[in-house]
Amino acid sequence: MTGRVGGSYLQHAVRSLVTGKDDGSSAHADAAMRVAEALGELKGAAMKVGQAVAMGLEGMDVPADVSAALRRMNDRGEPVPFAQIKASVEAELNKPLDLAFLEFDPSPLGTASLGQAHAARLPDGSEVVVKVLHSGIDGSVGADLSALKAVLISSRILRRDRSEVDAWFDEIRERIEEELDYLREAENLDFFRRALASDRGLRVPRTYPGWSTRRVLTMERMFGEPIDRFVATADPAFQQRAGLSVARSFHRMLYDLATLHADPHPGNTLFAPDGTLGLLDFGCVKRFERPFVAAYAGMALAVIDRRRPEALGYAERLGILAPGWRPEAGDLLWELADAMCDPFRRGPYTAGSGEDNVIARVKAQSAAVLLYPELRSPRELIFLHRALGGMYTMVRRLRTRADWGAMLRPWLEGAVNRG
């Protein structure tokens, strides 16, 4: 798959990005379908990368057939046979499945990149979801990522400094390796459940330690609809409530808690009919140092207020501008940042409407980033911007209206003061 698609389709995609020319969406759709199918079967780090690609394209207004094909990465992978799941759970809990659970549905709720989830019922009647790590995946992540890095570098699809690429993959590897420990994910769930308890628009499932190990995680079952069905059926007022909760949860996690749910694709959010969000899958969590969050918030404030020298100074501190950067690189970074922050200057503004031109402005500038190696993406930004992109994708699909600047500024100023 990498040889066929990586060597041709991805180079075509880069070429189209640079030239602005597209020679047919059918080729994109066919390739996207092949990628989705292949990565869905591979699971592991390969599927994680596919999900990240799908989430990024979701926010870039690609043709509908391409988006639909890649959106499958947020849906179901190829299921693991129940006999294998049963054996894994019994070995981890050290008891037969029918003694550990009153009921255990053999049909999975979903198969993700690293694990498979099943509905079950505890002996006391509690409805739960049991997530089981895929067998053998512990040893495959490092090989998957090393192979992917080699392909990207040797094919020259990724034309960046080797040290920058190494830092990216080190960051990705660390986050995925953390996801392989379900006891760590249980700790993350407990942390966010306490931290977000005061927000009535959000719910985080509780965990059941007696039924959880490093390879099996048992948690409260939450009910709701995926975003597509919710958007198609929900009352506009409840869609608005949901969109505001999506944005508010991101700001709270980053600027207040300095701890971010960093796997925000739509498959990890359930929508109740009244717009309450059920947040799922806290295996991928990024923790930040307070000085970093303060500098990032300071840069955002400087861009929103159009204080260019101060904003570029923060960019240097954060490692976004490398030492000795050319003025043209600073100009490009300013144009990109200015486009991204424009919604925060407009007053009431509907994301995803005709007035939302952020994507068009960013796409007009982003191809030129390849020309300036001094424009960097430090490893701290990889999962931050992944989560930011996921948040923006969802508020656009929910067509959320808000005074985004008035919402964001208190969070930014609080982060600067705490840093």
Could you give a quick summary of the protein structure above?
The chain is an alpha+beta fold and 419 residues long.
Describe this structure in words.
This protein is an alpha+beta fold and 419 residues long. The protein folds into 3 domains: 2-74, no CATH class; 78-111 and 114-221, 2-Layer Sandwich (Phosphorylase Kinase, domain 1), CATH 3.30.200; 223-419, no CATH class. It has helices at 2-19, 25-42, 44-58, 64-71, 82-93, 97-100, 141-154, 162-179, 182-195, 227-233, 236-257, 290-304, 308-318, 327-341, 358-366, 379-397, 404-418, and strands spanning 103-104, 110-111, 115-121, 127-133, 202-203, 216-220, 259-261, 269-271, 277-279, 285-287, 348-350, 401-403. A hairpin with a 3-residue loop joins strand 2 and strand 3. Helix 8 packs across helix 16 and helix 14 (327-341) runs antiparallel to helix 15. The radius of gyration is 22 Å and the shape is globular.
List the helices and strands and how they pair.
Layout: H1 2-19, H2 25-42, H3 44-58, H4 64-71, H5 82-93, H6 97-100, E1 103-104, E2 110-111, E3 115-121, E4 127-133, H7 141-154, H8 162-179, H9 182-195, E5 202-203, E6 216-220, H10 227-233, H11 236-257, E7 259-261, E8 269-271, E9 277-279, E10 285-287, H12 290-304, H13 308-318, H14 327-341, E11 348-350, H15 358-366, H16 379-397, E12 401-403, H17 404-418
